Amino acid sequence: MNEKPGMRIWDCHTHFSGVDGDTPEARIDRLLLYADRMGIERLVLFMGLRFIYDPSPEEMRLQNDEVLAALRHRPDRLFGFVYLNPNHLEASLAELNRCVADGPMIGIKLWVARRCHTPELDPIVARAHELKVPVLQHTYRKATGNLPGESTPMDLAELARRHPEASFIGAHLGADFELGIAALRECPNVSVDLCGFDPTAGVTEHAVKELGAERVLFGSDAGGRSFASQLAKVFGANISPRERQLILGENLRGFLGPVLKRKGIKT
């Protein structure tokens, strides 16, 4: 299944969205079929069968229940991050305890309900640190303008500086990757993932040069993006074989290693 012996590819950023199927089980089987074609061993999955920008507590729980169903179906191939909404802080902390402290999930996903520099996120990040799990925050800077609650890399940098003991993943490099990398360069507790925009010459090389390969993670954003197009960002980059190996899986295995060991999840 792997691209070559010793190349274990782990994808830190996938969704049900864009994949055929009426149930979590059907969709994850389809997504794993595509992953197998590209030699991807493990997927990190979050959010439910339909995207909800600002989920209510009930919707948030349903979203996480759908990921939990997929995890039960394919625990050999999947990890889950709990989807939280800081606009409902008490419900988010309850979901964090249900799905991570007392459940099989191993990280947190935050999307576009509230910009992440606001103090409402502080209790979530503090609890994440207690549980030793990463917070993956969507970051984007759109030429057409962000959604009202959509975070920029600068927002994440502000949050990360307030919580230097916590671990973060800045998703999408902020899309405007040069600005995103510059904003996060001085935040050593933030890694970045490469997913969610078209392959662009120099993206991965610039991330490696400015952040170091150890802070760069492969993510696809599948099924909204194809595995192949996102892998091209790494396989087509002018980087060393060692840097490629770190980005495609070794960094994520190290990042998740403590929580996987604590939960007894074998890889």
Considering the chains and any ligands shown, give keywords for the structure.
267 residues, 6-stranded parallel beta sheet, 3-stranded parallel beta sheet, TIM Barrel, single chain, alpha/beta
Q: Would you write up a description of this structure?
A:
Helix content is 42%, strand content 15%. The chain is an alpha/beta fold and 267 residues long. The protein has a single domain, classed as TIM Barrel (Alpha-Beta Barrel). The strands form two sheets. Strands 4-5-6-7-8-9 form a six-stranded parallel sheet. The chain has a three-stranded parallel sheet with strand order 1-2-3. Helix 2 (57-73) runs parallel beside helix 3 (89-101), helix 3 runs parallel beside helix 4 (122-131) and helix 6 runs parallel beside helix 7. The two termini are 15 Å apart.
How is the topology of this model organized?
Layout: E1 9-14, H1 24-37, E2 40-45, H2 57-73, E3 78-80, E4 82-84, H3 89-101, E5 108-110, H4 122-131, E6 135-140, H5 153-162, E7 168-174, H6 177-184, E8 190-193, H7 203-211, E9 216-217, H8 227-235, H9 241-263
Parallel strand pairs: 1-2, 2-3, 4-5, 5-6, 6-7, 7-8, 8-9
Quick recap:
By secondary structure, the chain is of the alpha/beta class. The protein has a single domain (9-263), classed as Metal-dependent hydrolases (TIM Barrel), CATH 3.20.20.140.
By CATH, the topology is TIM Barrel
Summed over residues and divided by their number, the pLDDT gives a mean of 96
CATH class: Alpha Beta
> Gap between N and C termini, in Å?
15 Å
**Which architecture name does CATH use?**
Alpha-Beta Barrel
